[in-house]
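Human: My hope is that you can spare some time for a protein that puzzles me. I am handing you a single protein, as its sequence and its fold in token form. Could you go through the record with me and say what the backbone is doing? Take your time, and here it is.
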Amino acid sequence: MIELFGGALLVLGLFTRIVALLAAILMAMAYVTAHAAWFPTINNGELAAMYFMVYFLIFARGPGPASLDSRLFGRE
């Protein structure tokens, strides 16, 4: 559900920080449960680690000026 609806909300830029945080937590849990290793390349966990970093960056930076968040709620 987070991947499907969360991805759609991220593309639209609606509730960006909340959805990005949930997706980052999901990717961290995916890495820990399925790819438990010190380095992602040991157990093919590169994608889970990369998606975690991307979602965390989106969470940290927030929505951009062209997002629905900025248009509806006056955020940048």
Q: What stands out?
A: Helices lie at 2-12, 16-34, 46-61, 68-73. The mean pLDDT is 87. The chain has four helices and no strands. Residues 2-73 form one domain.
